[in-house]
Design goal:
By secondary structure, the protein is α+β, with helices and mostly antiparallel strands. The chain has 21 helices and 40 strands. A 7-stranded mixed β-sheet has the order 28-31-32-36-35-34-33. Strand 34 (658-668) and strand 35 form a beta hairpin. Helix 5 (250-258) packs across helix 6. The longest helix has 19 residues, at 785-803. It is elongated.
């Protein structure tokens, strides 16, 4: 009874599914006064999009149920038979037929002379190879009621000869195919759709009374649950003494065919019927193959289970299994096992009707490369109150078709782990404000009750308790959406929003991010937007995976973690462009990166980064030639920081992805702002980059914070310049020298300029000579030569003490 694989072939695998059902079946469950076209339009209007409506048996006048009395070989054709066919009280008709299953005693449809079949075929008296034929015995495909064209459409032995085919099969009918959104799992059943139709058309859902089956045997299997919230409810029942000669009745097979399912045998057909009618997938085990007890647990790594499609699958602890004596016999919520399947010889059956949580089923069928109706429903959520109800419905149908004696229902449940809907408030004022219109209280209550909700009125509006099948109703906006779609979006007035908009004044303490984008765009950089997801192997390659955030359910294996830097994505985009004959690439991105600290929630940081490769300037006779280098990107960093009035200090970099001698960390005071430099040669080689790649990455919050500008007095007195040359250790940075000068001279130092650098003869190995100009100025007086000389003396002393500098002679 496991729903198995979708549609006509149990071994067919599909990645999509729609809810398909016959119109006549829906009308059995809800009163519908509308025409077929009106019904289709209304279903689409309330959010149940009608993908297709296929008419069935629209033009079958003149087609009747006939019985073949005798068959004789055609004298002129080996594959044709001359049949004598009875259509009731009149004389038998002679019909020439080439169907392979034509035989005496068969009841099949006959299109009489004068009938017009679907497709425009007109039936006339004719001679076939010299033999008169008065009508045509038909296949299901020729009547456009089923795609089967293998032979004549066969009817049961009790089919009334001479009866109109349309009245016998309940035609004309139509097959509706709905394209449902993932949140409407309740509409993967006739009953679920019926409640929406009742609300939309102002009618009522027909009550479905299912009495409890009388207990005629003590046979049962004990059930043990070891899966916690993955399977909080499991119901099972044994039915004995089944008639193996029983066939699925015509009304059942016709419903399944029009729903796109192929009839197989009564047990499987009943399972499909209950699933389509109520929405509860079920499974039937051959009870003679079970030892018991029946259990549900997580699979153990290394276990195997042979499924209905005869594949032997290897299991791990991500799968939920149904066990018999602790041996896996079914993949819970997906597919039953081969060894315990029901067959045409099954006389004792154990029916399973369980509630499997979506988290325990989702993705499991995709992992195995198969797709089942059961998995599709359990992944989206099945009503946890359905299992016992569906089991009684299936029992009644099986006994009606195959007889048998039912045993007691064995139910094991962890009621504390079953999802229970909570009341949701709906305020009149909020409803009117969101919709832009008022809906009468009586209409709101009618809609909600028609959808199966319990409604109680309070001062502000209503308290609404959703039915257990509606997992999508959790907040007030969900209820407003229900009212809106049933009332009709076309009824909601179109109005221009009115009201005052409060404009927030931009803060003077921050640089607008738009200015950062404009700055880089003006400097010939193009903005890129990359996924915030990235391949974990890429982060490993960049040595940036230490504190990454892993995604629990990634879209693909290549997008399994959140990025910890913007640079890997930008460099990949740059490499992609370089590989397509772009010899000068300059890209930037402003976005978020993600890190996680031990025991803390993930944190997001806004960064701005840029990468460049190729020529420093566009090609031209007046442009500087040569490849882009560290100083080009350093200039871009300083231009960005200048927007916030920040003067950066550059220190030796420690990032593993940076070139050790051609990259630097960017600091402002005691705060690290980011990094700038060339990529490490090993990384560039691993990324298959032939060009030098220069990049930077800055913390946006740090790079855009600025002090509020304050006016200060300009000095009216002239400045004095003194040049000095110092010998310093090779590893000494200019930033350290500059900091020492500012600390020693204070406000006297108006500026400092480095104008020469020398290495070579005359200097000790491991030293360099730096020549700088000190710009000295006071705001209250003119500096004298003695003042300037004292300032130079103070500067040299400080540089000697702090940096090991020696005045060059």
């Amino acid at each position: 009874m496991d729903p198995g694989l979708r549609r006509d072939d149990e071994t067919n695998i599909s990645e999509t599914i729609e809810m398909k059902f016959p119109e006549s079946w829906l009308r059995e469950h809800v009163t519908i006064e509308a025409t077929r076209d009106e019904l289709a339009a209304r279903l689409t209007a309330i959010g149940l999009e009608v993908e297709n409506v296929e008419a069935i048996g629209a033009t079958l006048d003149g087609v009747v149920v006939a019985e073949i009395l005798s068959c004789a070989k055609h004298p002129e054709a080996d594959r044709l038979q001359v049949c004598q066919v009875s259509v009731g009280g009149s004389e038998p008709l002679q019909v020439v037929c080439g169907a392979p299953n034509a035989r005496p005693g068969l009841k099949a449809p006959l299109a009489t002379v004068g009938a017009n079949l679907p497709g425009g075929m007109a039936i006339k008296a004719a001679k076939l190879r010299g033999v008169d034929s008065f009508g045509m015995l038909c296949s299901a495909k020729e009547l456009a009621i089923d795609p089967d064209a293998s032979g004549l459409l066969e009817f049961p032995a009790d089919a009334p000869v001479g009866a109109s085919l349309a009245s016998y099969l309940g035609l004309p009918d139509a097959s509706f195919e709905l394209k449902l959104t993932p949140n409407r799992a309740d509409c993967f059943s006739i009953r679920g759709v019926a409640f929406d139709v009742a609300a939309a058309l102002g009618t009522n859902v027909t009550a479905l009374e299912i009495p409890e089956a009388p207990i005629a045997t003590d046979a049962k299997f004990e059930v043990e649950l070891h899966a916690g919230s993955d399977c909080p409810r499991y119901c099972g029942r044994v039915i004995e003494g089944l008639d193996t000669n029983a066939k699925s009745p015509l009304w059942l097979t016709e419903k399944l065919k029009r729903a796109g399912l192929r009839p197989i045998n009564p047990l499987v057909d009943v399972g499909h019927f209950v699933m389509l009618e109520l929405g509860q997938p079920m499974h039937a085990f051959d009870a003679d193959t079970l030892r018991g007890p029946i259990g549900v647990r997580r699979a153990r790594t290394g276990e195997h289970c042979k499924l209905l499609d005869e594949r032997d699958i290897a299991l791990d602890d991500s799968f939920l299994v149904v066990t018999d004596a602790d041996t896996p016999v079914a993949l819970a919520g997906v597919m039953g096992g081969f060894d315990t399947r029901v067959t045409d010889r099954t006389t004792r059956v154990f029916l399973e009707s369980a509630h499997f949580a979506p988290a325990a089923v989702i993705g499991r069928s995709r992992k195995l490369g198969l797709f089942t109706d059961a998995a599709h429903r359990f992944e989206r959520g099945v009503d946890p109150e359905l299992p016992r109800y569906a089991l009684e419905r299936a029992t009644a149908l099986i006994q009606r078709i195959m007889g048998g004696q039912a045993g007691p229902i064995t139910e094991t449940a962890s009621f504390g782990q079953l999802l229970r809907p909570a009341p949701v408030p709906l305020r009149r004022a909020r409803l009117a404000r969101v919709l832009g219109m008022s809906v009468a209280d009586a209409e709101v209550e009618r809609i909600l009750r028609a959808l199966g909700m319990q409604v109680s009125e309070d001062e502000q509006g209503w308290q609404v308790l959703p039915p257990t099948r509606r997992f999508d109703i959790a907040i007030e906006e969900d209820l407003i959406e229900e009212v809106a779609r049933i009332v009709g979006y076309e009824a909601i007035p179109v109005r221009i929003p009115a009201g005052e908009i409060c404009l927030a004044a931009p803060s003077e303490t921050r640089v607008d991010e738009t200015l950062l984008r404009r700055q880089l765009a003006a400097h010939d950089f193009q903005e890129a937007i990359n996924y915030a997801f990235i391949d974990g192997r890429t982060l490993d390659l960049w040595q940036l995976a230490g504190d990454h955030v892993a995604i629990a359910n990634p879209l693909t294996s290549e997008l399994g973690v959140m990025r910890t830097s913007l640079l890997p994505g930008l460099v990949e985009a740059l490499r992609h462009n370089l590989g397509r004959q772009q010899d000068r690439v300059r890209l930037f991105e402003l976005g978020r990166v993600f890190h996680i600290d031990d025991g803390k929630a993930p944190r997001e940081t806004r960064r701005i980064a840029a990468v460049a490769a190729g020529r420093a300037n566009t090609e031209g006779w007046s442009a500087r030639s040569g490849e882009i280098d560290f100083y080009d990107l350093k200039a871009e960093v300083e231009a960005l920081l200048a927007l916030a009035g920040i003067t950066a200090e550059y220190r030796i970099a420690s990032e593993p992805f940076g070139h050790p001698g051609r990259s630097a960390e960017v600091w402002h005071g005691d705060r690290k702002l980011g990094w700038v430099g060339h990529l490490h040669p090993r990384l560039a080689k691993a990324l298959d980059l032939d060009s030098e790649v220069v990049a930077f990455e800055l913390d946006v919050d740090a790079a855009t914070s600025r002090a509020v500008p304050r006016a200060s007095e300009l000095s009216r007195f002239p400045s004095v310049r003194r040049d000095i040359a110092l010998v310093v250790p090779e590893q000494m940075t200019w930033a350290a020298l500059e900091a020492s000068l500012k600390a020693s001279l204070g406000p006297r130092l108006h500026g400092v300029v480095l104008f020469d650098q020398y290495r070579g003869p005359g200097l000790e190995i491991g030293t360099k000579s730096l020549a700088m100009g000190l710009i000295l100025q006071e705001v209250s007086r003119t500096l004298t030569d003695l003042d300037a000389d004292q300032a130079v003396s103070d500067a040299v002393a400080a540089l000697s003490r702090d940096c090991g500098a020696v005045l060059r002679g």
